[in-house]
Amino acid sequence: MSSNWVVWLNDSSLRTDHPVFYSAPTATQAIYIWDDEYLRANAYTFKRLLFVYDTLASMPVKIIWGESGDVLSSLAVDRVYVPQTVCPWIKDVADRLSHKIDFTFVEDEPLVQLDEGKAWRRFYQYWNRAERTVFLPNAGTGQQSTPPLLPGR
Amino acid sequence: MIEYLETDFENREDIIAYVRKLSPWAEGNESCIQGGAAHMNALLDLLEPEKYGRTRNFGNGRVSRLSPYISRGIVSLNSVRNRALNQSEKPERAYKFIQELAWRDFWRRVARTQPELLWKDVETYKTGFDASEYLSDLPVDIIQGRTGICCIDYFINELTTFGLLHNHARMYLASYIVHFRRVRWQAGAFWFMQHLVDGDLASSNLSWQWVASTYSNRPYIFNLENVNKYFGDLIDTSGEANRDLNMDYSSLHSMLFPRLGVTDVE
Ligand SMILES: Cc1cc2nc3c(=O)[nH]c(=O)nc-3n(C[C@H](O)[C@H](O)[C@H](O)COP(=O)(O)OP(=O)(O)OC[C@H]3O[C@@H](n4cnc5c(N)ncnc54)[C@H](O)[C@@H]3O)c2cc1C
Do B158 and B248 lie in a common domain? Predict the structure, then answer.
């Protein structure tokens, strides 16, 4: 990789207008790691794997084979931009490498304007607050931004 | 050495062959549900939020089928909501559709702030049974879709063939597994995650817990009459083909939760 940073896409963020691309410097390369060990441990069926590959094949992203930690280490990058995810495994990889790589997790566009840190329990407790902004375009936050410039594959 | 994988293909058959070679251990076949933004855009064009509200509970209702694209992040919830607002005369007409998008956002927020709840019982079962009384593994007849109950086998076949299921069918199947067969929700949730092309830990596992009653006030159960109402046009819902489900709710409650009084689950 020519620059010192990459965007590391994961299974919950396969698109090029995710806010992670606005956080990263312009033209940062996007990668996806095909971590076969992880996929196999989850025993994902072929249809699930193919759906992801269909999507990746239509995007300007480099797909790299290998164990995620090893791949990120061998890329010799010092910063990795990651779309925020609930997947505990991505967080584990980031924790393991945090002594040598800076990970920046970037939130997706919000559906509602609410504190991301609040621990909700029941839906209607959340809904009573969510209702105030959920019916507004862009949750009332202003305009959606236009897609940034991305490098080719 | 960094090993870059192929991204230029002539056609989908070539992608299929390539992924087979990459991960030969993966079970099953391809689904007709294809990834990529072009397919997602085609579905967005078909969105009818108003009809959705009236028909979404039916097996052949106007649901969006967007979940694989939302789950894989091919489109944001924000964009889908904006589109739903554009395609409705007034925001109120898209109420139900947007509320369902909010369910996804809610589950995501719960998982984000309390990731330990993804695989752990949030609360105890409200079924009269202790977690230790549930089977830890899925019985083989469920995995193979040979339970002998027509509608359940139909839903299992949909799951394993297409990797997608209607929300109501997911609820029935989860309820059947946890309450009729007394299997721990975690076993069912792991199985769903293997097959669903929209598999999402937060929406799936927390919904399983909602059905199981470890994240709700009571267990979710259903009977044949209910399946017939919503899926009768699509599946054989005759009593003979679906014996174990053909009961009124109060008999079902006593059969499934013998340690609870009827009022405990009503
Ligand atoms: C046991 C169980 C497991 C589930 N597992 C998943 C899963 O792995 N991934 C997943 O995306 N959804 C899951 N759901 C939620 C729901 O069933 C699906 O999102 C929905 O059926 C997808 O079909 P659709 O895109 O046509 O939805 P629509 O009805 O058209 O709704 C539009 C979008 O709203 C969201 N949504 C709708 N209903 C729900 C709901 N009840 N909970 C959360 N989000 C919702 C989805 O993103 C969906 O694409 C599960 C539900 C149950 C009961």
Answer: yes
Task: List the CATH code of the domain at A5-108.
Answer: 3.40.50.620
What are the beta bridge partners of residue A62?
A31
Among B76, B152, B203, say which to mutate for ligand 1: greatest number of ligand atoms within 8 Å of CB.
Answer: B203
State the residue for tokens 């995501």: B108
| Claim to verify: residue B90 and residue B147 sit in the same structural domain | no
pLDDT of B151-204, one tens digit each?
999 999 999 999 999 999 999 999 999 999 999 999 999 999 999 999 999 999
For chain A, the distance separating the N- and C-terminal CA atoms, rounded to the nearest angstrom, is 12
ipTM of the complex: 0.95
Of B23, B98, B110, the CB nearest to A36: B23
Record the pTM: 0.96
| A109/B contact by beta carbon, under 8 A | yes
**What is the C-alpha separation between A147 and B117, in angstroms, rounded?**
35
- Contact B4/A64, CB-based, under 8 Å? yes
Q: Which sign, positive or negative, has the C-alpha torsion B17, B22, B25, B27?
A: negative
